[in-house]
Write a structure and sequence with these properties.
There is one protein chain. The protein is α/β, with parallel strands linked by helices and 385 residues long. The chain contains 11 helices and 16 strands. The strands form 4 sheets. An 8-stranded mixed β-sheet has the order 1-2-4-3-5-16-6-15, sandwiched between helices. The chain has a 4-stranded antiparallel β-sheet with strand order 10-12-8-13, covered by helices on one side. A two-stranded antiparallel ribbon has the order 7-14. Helix 2 (11-23) packs antiparallel against helix 4, helix 4 (103-120) crosses helix 11 and helix 7 (206-224) packs antiparallel against helix 8.
């Protein structure tokens, strides 16, 4: 492991920053305290700082010693609506909110790179540090883009990374080309007719209709999507009723679709509408579907994926980097930035083994100087023309 010596020297500072962020997690578009800390540190290190980009986003601009490429580095800042159950001494102090996806570490790693680069400035061109809000399905990347992120802070390339609890510290992997799924969130509203539970013949029971509809939705993937095409349609919530003896009037079904091919996604969206319209007519009720196209498919630039992996190998060693053969069904809104600027997104393994988005997720803090070093070396390598 060849962590940059100066970053290793202030690794304890990174741990303290990360633990402070972990204790005070904030949901998407509410990262007031987090963005304030980020902006204050960037200013302290003499980095040109811009706040309020996409509401709570922060951008730092650092010029090197001469002309060169403008390279963007991105980290997300938001937490999840999860009650933490890790028993850490620095567990969340914000009830029902937790950094269960490690965005506190992403922010810290990028801050570590920014501090090092501001001290050394041993690079040409310009480093653009992008601290993004609201990655967890709330459109943070799109908000920053709508705020003219890349018009105001042009980038020739942009890079991001995510911690990966594999139990293997410093294992870096990347999938060139199509790498992560696009995602929709959907809500289906069934409006029937309620009654006393002892007189169901009077009702138009939305729970019975919902039960049938959930089963029908599964046939879209099994009977309309080719077996060779990866696509997931999952119902994750069913809400109806409030009493044992009342058949409710309404039921809401919610869930997500994950896809890699836009044509297939559009077919599924149309089939969902066909099924809901047909069931509404069959049962004599109203059924409406609301669909949010939340994440685009993440597509890594082929050439820059290899370059990112080569740079990472300088930190973790060639034996600890790999091209990942498989796509990931998870989604990441860094995809929106990659649609505008070419770049790449990798995973960095650490010693934790509890999965992301789990109330017991614990980050291995040894990842912090590793990620910071990779980010810093990307700037030192890719800004040079």
């Amino acid at each position: 492991m060849a962590i940059i010596a100066r970053i290793e020297e202030f690794a304890e500072d990174l741990i303290n920053i990360r633990r402070d962020l972990h204790e005070h997690p904030e949901l998407g578009m509410e990262e007031i305290r987090t963005s304030g800390i980020v902006a204050a540190l960037l200013n302290e290190w003499g980095i040109e700082t811009h706040t309020g980009i996409g509401k709570t986003g922060v951008v730092g601009v650092l010029n090197g010693k001469g002309p060169g490429r403008r390279i963007g580095l991105r980290a997300d800042m938001d937490a999840l609506p999860i009650e933490e159950r890790t028993n850490l001494s620095f567990s969340s102090k914000n009830p029902g909110v937790m950094h269960a996806c490690g965005h506190d570490s992403h922010t810290t790693m990028l801050l570590g790179a920014a501090r090092y680069l501001s001290e050394k400035r041993d690079f040409s061109g310009t480093a653009i540090f992008i601290f993004q809000p609201a990655e967890e399905g709330l459109g943070g990347a799109r908000a920053m883009l709508a705020d003219n992120l890349f018009e105001r802070f042009p980038c020739d390339e942009v890079y991001g990374m995510h911690n990966w609890p594999t139990g293997e510290l410093g294992k870096v992997s990347i999938k060139p080309g199509t790498a992560m799924a696009g995602a929709d969130f959907f809500d289906i509203y069934i409006r029937g007719f309620g009654s006393h539970a002892a007189m169901p013949q009077i009702s138009k029971d939305p729970i019975v209709i919902a039960s049938s509809l959930v089963a029908q939705l599964q046939t879209i993937v099994s009977r309309n999507v080719p077996p060779t095409e990866p696509l997931v349609l999952s119902v994750t919530k069913i809400h109806a009723g409030a009493a044992y003896n009342v058949i409710p009037s309404e039921c809401v079904i919610s869930g997500t679709m994950r896809y890699f091919d836009l044509e297939m996604a559009n077919m599924v969206r149309n089939r969902m509408k066909d099924l809901t319209d047909g069931m509404a007519k069959s049962y004599g009720v109203e059924i409406d579907i609301e669909n949010q196209e939340v994440f685009d498919v993440l597509v890594n630039n082929e050439d820059l994926s290899h370059k990112m992996l080569d740079i990472a190998s300088e930190v973790v060693g060639s034996e600890n980097v790999a091209l990942r053969p498989n796509v990931i069904a998870g989604s990441e809104d860094f995809a929106d930035m990659l649609k505008v600027v070419p770049g790449a997104y990798c995973n960095v393994g650490h010693g934790g083994t509890v999965p992301l988005h789990n109330e017991g997720f614990v980050l291995d803090e040894d990842i912090l100087p590793i990620g910071a070093s990779i980010y810093a070396k990307i700037i030192e390598s890719r800004t040079t023309v």
